[in-house]
Design goal:
Leucine-rich repeat, LRR (right-handed beta-alpha superhelix); innate immunity; 19 helices; LRR_dom_sf; immunity; 5-stranded parallel sheet; Toll_tir_struct_dom_sf; transmembrane; Rossmann fold
């Protein structure tokens, strides 16, 4: 019985461990306790081995085509499942049966041709669902979301999505965000969205005004922020279909990538102004075909709620012909916050500025305002309530004229004129009396003067060409000096109330704690880079590390014969320039003899006599006798080997320890053995193991293991046979 139990346990473990191993192989960055990132892995299926420990599973950007019943069965604690950008076209009905704790499911950008309510049935904890970018044309006959009681955000739609039916959203009572990509939506059944009682942010991309009108009719009391995209307001007659919007309780309207004309603008303004709770209008990346010559007078009712207007990246092809906006003067009088960014504004008419009586915030950044046009825009009586003004990224160049143009703005306390091109600034300027914040960063200022107002509490002069800071600013609390050329800190007595200062990316060499003391109160937090705080220490540390690195290289090079490899590489390069074999006329010797000095007695007194006194005699090259005096020894070795038919190595324990024998072996290693011929003759003078030969002479070791060599016999009777064999080898 115990045996069977052990067998069952081992079988279960054997099945479990390969699954976990398979998961680790498929997801190299998988943390089996919490999160698995299997994106961009080229997977065709959901990998096996998923366990109850995993809470986040990212399978995005793979080639998965279907989700099977057993794929996610064990991942019972999943909170996030990302399957976007695959090729999923089929999902088994109970694929998500174990995902009762799932909170985010992303199936976007796949190939789902239909949606089944059965898929989402077990997902009672789901809060975020993304199913956009598939190929379904509708949501089915009923609601696929009826069981998703906790759903907070839903994103659906695709280029093929064409119809929304009644009942498609049954079961959803509240949504924080609903986004519908309905560029080709052609049919909307009235009442389809009416079941949703509240939508904080409704985003819809749509091109047909009649369909949009039907959608709006169901959202009159539920949508708080209505975000409309890609709609063309170009036909005045069709704009009448949107009159129903005047009854909407939306507090914010966003129009993005929309199209307007001079003929439709008055109608749209009239509709928006009629919305009883509308507080904010936003236009981004829109296009206006016209010059402001509206054919119908705009009758301003002065909405009591509308206070914020944002226009960003508005394209007006003939902006230079745009009129003075006389017809909207009354409409703008109650705005408190206006942003007109990157819209090629080169002038705000004086009369228009004078009508902005309630304006507290004005952002005209990234436009074409110059010194003269600013003077006209900020004329006497303009912007009387203005507190914040952003003129960054314009064409201002005269700081004195800028201050003078804004001097009458008594309530202005924050001015951003960064990323203009002021350059040199004068000594005296006029500024609004209550100005507290001034941003002059990236304005090409080489030196600060008393033109800077002394009333400031915050000053930003980052990214300029400042060499020093010598201003007296008694009320300054924050100072930003990043990316300049300062070599010393500002004098503490000049800025006694300073609380925060940013001085990174300057040329400060060092400073003391005393320099950071302001009237006895030390700065609480100093955040500087390591280079700025300990430059000398850092340089010393770098030098030490470089020295240690070089020392390690020397030690490693010595241990692994790096010098030897460099010397032999040089010899090999020299040899490579020469022909593979010397011409026959240059051959002077029958053999070059390579031997150790300790074996010279046997070589010179025995072998030389036997070979040079033979009949016919052999011509041998010996280094003692035949090397050219005064010539580099390596060149002598190379030349002698090249001028010999054979190279004769007399191997012994002394040979493998000899430095010059190594050179001779080296060149043979590069020059002779590589030619795959038998020019090398090995004589084993005494028993020697191939392992005793240095490992870097791998070919010599291989020859000793695979080829026959001559071994000097101690028995005199066998020596005669040795000499005959050697002579035969030399003649071959």
């Amino acid at each position: 019985m115990h045996t069977w139990k052990m067998w069952a346990i081992c079988t279960a473990l054997a099945a479990y461990l390969p699954e976990e191993q398979a998961l680790r192989q498929a997801c190299l960055s998988c943390d089996a306790t919490q999160s698995c990132n299997c994106s961009f892995m080229g997977l065709d299926f959901i990998p096996p081995g998923l366990t109850g420990k995993i809470t986040v599973l990212n399978l995005a950007h793979n080639r998965i085509k279907l989700i099977r019943t057993h794929d996610l069965q064990k991942a019972v604690n999943l909170r996030t499942l990302l399957l976007q950008s695959n090729q999923i076209s089929s999902i088994d009905e109970d694929s998500f049966g174990s995902q009762g704790k799932l909170e985010l499911l992303d199936l976007s950008n796949n190939s789902l041709a239909h949606l089944s309510p059965v898929w989402f049935g077990p997902l009672f904890s789901l809060q975020h669902l993304r199913i956009q970018g598939n190929s379904y044309s509708d949501l089915g006959e009923s609601s696929p979301f009826s069981s998703l009681r906790n759903l907070s955000s839903l994103h659906l739609g695709n280029p093929q999505f064409s119809i929304i039916r009644q009942g498609n959203f049954e079961g959803i009572v509240f949504l924080n965000t609903l986004r519908i990509d309905g560029d080709n939506l052609s049919q909307y059944e009235p009442g389809s969205l009416k079941s949703i009682r509240k939508i904080n942010h409704m985003i819809i991309s749509i091109r047909r005004i009649d369909v949009f009108s039907a959608v709006i009719r169901d959202l009159l009391h539920s949508a708080i922020w209505l975000d409309v995209r890609k709609l063309a307001f170009s036909v005045p007659e069709k704009i009448q279909l949107l009159r129903i919007m005047s009854s909407s309780f939306a507090k914010k309207i966003s129009l993005k990538q929309c199209l307007f004309t001079d003929a439709t603008v008055p109608e749209i303004v009239s509709i928006l102004e009629g919305m009883p709770k509308l507080m904010e209008v936003e236009m981004k990346d829109c296009t206006l075909l016209g010059t402001g010559k509206w054919y119908k007078q705009i009758h301003a009712n002065q909405s009591q709620s509308l206070r914020i207007l944002t226009i960003e990246n508005l394209s007006i092809e003939e902006f230079y012909l745009f009129t003075d906006l006389q017809s909207v003067l009354d409409l703008l009088s109650l705005f408190r916050k206006v942003t007109v960014e990157n819209t090629k504004v080169f002038l705000v008419p004086c009369k228009l500025s004078q009508h902005l009586l309630s304006l507290e915030y004005l952002d005209l950044s990234a436009n074409l305002l110059g010194d003269q046009s600013l003077e006209h825009s900020a004329c006497q009586g303009a912007w009387p309530s203005l507190q914040t003004l952003n003129l960054s990224q314009n064409s201002l160049s005269d700081l004195k004229m800028t201050g003078k143009s804004l001097f009458h703005l008594r309530n202005l306390n924050l001015l951003d004129i960064s990323e203009n091109n002021f350059g040199e600034i004068p000594d005296m300027c006029e500024w609004p009396e209550n100005l507290k914040y001034l941003n002059l960063s990236s304005t090409q200022i080489p030196k600060l003067t008393t033109c800077i107002p002394s009333t400031l509490e915050v000053l930003d002069v980052s990214a300029n060409n400042l060499q020093d800071f010598g201003l007296q600013l008694p009320f300054l609390k924050e100072l930003y000096l990043t990316k300049n050329h300062l070599k010393t800190l500002p004098e503490a007595t000049d800025i006694p109330n300073l609380v925060a200062m940013s001085i990174s990316r300057n040329k400060l060499n060092s400073f003391s704690k005393e320099e950071l003391t302001v009237r006895g109160a030390q700065v609480g937090s100093v955040q500087l880079s390591l280079m700025e705080c300990h430059r000398s220490l850092l340089v010393s540390l770098i030098c030490t590390l470089v020295f240690l690195f070089i020392l390690i290289l020397v030690v490693v090079g010595y241990k692994y014969h790096a010098v030897w490899y460099m010397r032999m590489t040089w010899a090999w390069l020299q040899a490579k320039r020469k022909p593979k074999r010397a011409p026959t006329k240059d051959i002077c010797y029958d053999a070059f003899v390579s031997y150790s000095e300790n074996d010279s007695n046997w070589v010179e007194n025995i072998m030389v006599q036997q070979l040079e006194q033979a009949c016919p005699p052999f011509r041998l090259c010996l280094h003692k006798r035949d090397f050219v005096p005064g010539k580099w020894i390596v060149d002598n070795i190379i030349d002698s080997i090249e001028k010999s038919h054979k190279t004769l190595f007399v191997l012994s324990e002394h040979f493998v320890q000899s430095e010059w024998c190594k050179y001779e072996l080296d060149f043979s290693h590069f020059r002779l053995f590589d030619e795959n011929n038998d020019v090398a003759i090995l004589i084993l003078l005494e028993p020697i193991q191939s392992q005793a030969i240095p490992k870097r002479f791998c070919k010599l070791r291989k020859i000793m293991n695979t080829k026959t060599y001559l071994e000097w016999p101690p028995d005199e009777e066998q020596q005669q046979m040795f000499w005959e064999n050697l002579k035969a080898a030399l003649k071959s």
